[in-house]
Design goal:
globular, mainly alpha, 287 residues, 3 domains
Length: 287
């Protein structure tokens, strides 16, 4: 969603060549470096045997995030980066109408109907998925639309109500079916599933509209300024701190103390470490 806000209008600031250069050096290179780093880390700990490695298995491990599942996010992100130059060509004076159509069509055919059919235990015909809205590209449109276009009070209230309902649907629905089935049910999970779609949009809109109210005495702005340049690095290195908390400090990863306490501590420790890494010339551009 944020990429939609920050990148769809990149043509107003620089060329497409510069756009790809920026993505290459700020995202692609760090991804490759840390993917190889986790490979050596796993070899040192004996989790991977060097005899099992081949050129194909290394490529497989990087592209399919087999060395570190956390990095699955990069592949859809790269696909979105490649799509943005095409989407950015949509004239600005037509974007509101076109984006409304795109969001509406996705909502019906790629999000709402698949969930309804799943609940009715009827196979959903995958040919009905809108092909140009595959993957996670819809979030680019939603982020841009909510940021750039003003909504009337009625529309905002509807989004907030649907957001609350979506969150309750995921929590209560997951609990209900998981209790019945005896395992964590995935029916209401997934980033493109209806519940996530609803509450993520509502939360994004809420932050946009209430930032100044939430920014009590500038505390929120200071906190964002403290962390904003390190968040990508946090994503890249957080795994190692998580391992330390779980394997060395023996935290239960499913406990409340870990999920609500240690997770916050890990984030700020990661910010601190990344700030140090940013002071090392060779490493600073890799995180």
């Amino acid at each position: 969603m944020i990429s939609g806000v920050t990148l769809l209008d990149y043509r107003e600031r620089y060329s497409t060549k510069v756009y790809f250069q920026k993505r290459f050096f700020t995202v692609y290179i760090p991804f490759l470096f840390w993917s190889i780093f986790i490979l050596f880390y796993s070899l040192i700990l004996g989790r991977i045997s060097i005899s099992d490695l081949s050129f194909a298995s290394i490529i497989d491990g990087i592209i399919n995030s087999k060395f570190l599942s956390f990095y699955w996010f990069f592949m859809p992100l790269f696909a979105i980066y490649l799509s943005i130059p095409i989407i950015s060509l949509i004239p600005k004076n037509k974007r509101k109408t076109i984006f409304e159509y795109i969001i509406g069509v996705f909502f019906v055919f790629n999000s709402f109907l698949p969930l309804v059919f799943n609940l009715l235990k009827i196979p959903y015909n995958s040919s009905l998925y809108i092909p140009v809205l595959g993957g996670y590209i819809i979030w680019i449109f939603i982020g841009y639309y909510l940021d750039r276009f003003d909504l009337n009070n009625k529309s905002r209230k509807i989004i907030y109500i649907l957001g609350i309902l979506g969150l309750l649907l995921q929590i209560v629905g997951t609990w209900f079916f998981s209790y019945q089935n005896g395992y964590v049910d995935q029916m209401f999970k997934g980033y493109n599933n209806l519940p996530s779609w609803l509450y993520s949009s509502a939360f994004f809109l809420f932050i946009k509209e209430n930032y100044h109210k939430l920014n009590f005495k500038g505390i929120l702005s200071k906190l964002i300024s403290l962390c904003e340049k390190e968040t990508f690095g946090v994503y890249l290195i957080q795994y190692y701190l998580m391992e330390f908390f779980i394997l060395v400090l023996h935290f239960d990863p499913y406990s409340i103390s870990y999920r609500l306490g240690a997770s916050v501590l890990i984030f700020f420790l990661s910010v601190f470490i990344v700030k140090i890494l940013h002071k090392i010339p060779i490493i600073q551009k890799l995180c």
